[in-house]
Design goal:
The chain contains eleven helices and eleven strands. With about 325 residues, it is of the alpha/beta class. It has a seven-stranded mixed β-sheet with strand order 3-2-1-4-5-10-11, sandwiched between helices. It has a four-stranded parallel β-sheet with strand order 7-8-6-9, sandwiched between helices. Helix 1 packs parallel to helix 9, helix 5 crosses helix 6 and helix 6 runs parallel beside helix 11. The radius of gyration is 22 Å and the shape is elongated. It binds adenosine-5'-diphosphate (ADP). Adenosine-5'-diphosphate binds next to helix 4.
């Protein structure tokens, strides 16, 4: 630091909140934030229910023991919520006033791109804020990884494997809807891992006859007796797809929507480790005086970029992964 660079304002209290959809691993991130704060002489403050907790000053001072044993638990000990009031400037101002009143000098927000927008608004209003990507959808463009994706993928894969056992015994076709909001990353990953005959995702147009019916007919002709079709939530017509498969192939076809079980469960090793690293990284950046940034994982290391830049980026689907899934689904 040059002698002309002002040293960052001393941070006494750092708030941490989880917002938007919950993701397994958020607890490990909270724990890491809390313990890192304590390690560096900062008081950690837990904010309940996302931005609602800031607006309503619903906060709790945490200590090292408050976060005992939470790493292995899914969900978030701070609860999460959506906060429509926070989207308006008056809501942001209320949150800023609360931070000042509570002595919160820095804030760490864990969530998806909606949460990032809130973090950007707070940072622009003068509260030092760092965002951590936490969403099972893995749809945040600036980072190759977001907390929760690995656990959600493994939960879905485990459920699909179980379904496959019963479907195989009955020689059925299963059409499985996988979460991911408007993105197909989770569906593609699960489809490849489970050997789906077809993976339908919003990012890739598909020809129903050629990509599904012909594949099933050909497989059936070659002795295949069970078929798995993965449909991303964002495609949006899972029942209709199953109906057409049943009508056009004559194979008994069942729909399973995995739904919210994909969000729950004990976080995988990868999510725990990544969340712990990101939580630590976020605190260290605040202590350096940084603000208005997102913690990213790129090319096997952590880095950060401005939130506004992160929000302008668009995440492309891994086309090569899609090609692999298509090529080997024969
Ligand atoms: P996620 O963070 O998982 O994408 P949401 O999109 O629901 O989840 O956003 C979570 C919260 O972030 C919202 O309830 C709201 O409080 C805040 N938020 C979302 N969009 C904005 C925005 N444009 N400006 C300010 N705050 C926002």
């Amino acid at each position: 630091m040059s002698e002309h660079t002002p040293s960052p304002k001393k941070i006494r209290r750092i708030g941490v909140l989880t917002s938007g959809g919950d993701a397994p691993g958020m607890n490990a991130a909270i724990r890491s934030v809390v313990r890192t704060c304590i390690q560096y002489g900062v008081i950690p403050v837990g904010v309940h229910r996302g931005y609602n907790g800031l607006i309503n000053s619903d906060v709790v001072e945490l200590n090292a023991r408050s976060v005992n044993g939470i790493t292995s638990r899914g969900g978030t000990m701070l609860y999460t919520a959506r906060c429509p009031e926070f989207v308006k400037p008056e809501g942001v101002q209320k949150a800023v006033n609360a931070c000042r009143y509570l002595g919160i000098d820095g804030l760490i927000t864990i969530g998806g791109d909606g949460t990032f927008r809130g973090a950007r608004d707070l940072a622009n209003a003068g509260i030092n804020t760092v965002a951590i990507p936490g969403t099972i959808d893995n749809d945040i463009a600036c980072t190759h990884y977001s907390i929760g994706f690995d656990t959600a993928a493994n939960t879905a894969i485990d459920a699909i494997d179980k379904l496959a056992d019963t479907m195989q015994s009955h020689e059925r076709c299963s059409v499985v809807e996988v979460m991911g909001r408007g993105a197909g990353h989770l569906a593609l990953y699960c489809g490849l891992a489970c050997g789906a005959a077809a993976i339908l995702i919003p990012e890739k147009a598909f020809d129903f006859e050629k990509d599904i019916i012909e594949k099933i007919r050909e497989g059936h002709y070659n002795g295949k007796r069970h078929f798995l079709i993965i449909v991303a939530e964002g495609v949006g017509c899972t029942d209709e797809i199953a109906k057409r498969v049943r009508e056009q192939t004559g194979i008994e076809t069942r729909v399973s929507t995995l739904g919210h079980i994909q969000r729950g469960g004990s976080p995988s090793a990868r999510d725990r480790v990544m969340a712990s690293r990101m939580g630590h990284y976020a605190v260290m950046r605040l202590l350096e005086g940084k603000s208005n940034i997102v913690v990213c994982y790129r090319d096997a290391h952590l880095c950060d970029i401005p939130i506004s830049e992160a929000l302008d980026m668009h995440k492309d689907l891994d086309s090569y992964m899609y090609q692999v899934a298509c090529d080997i689904a024969i």
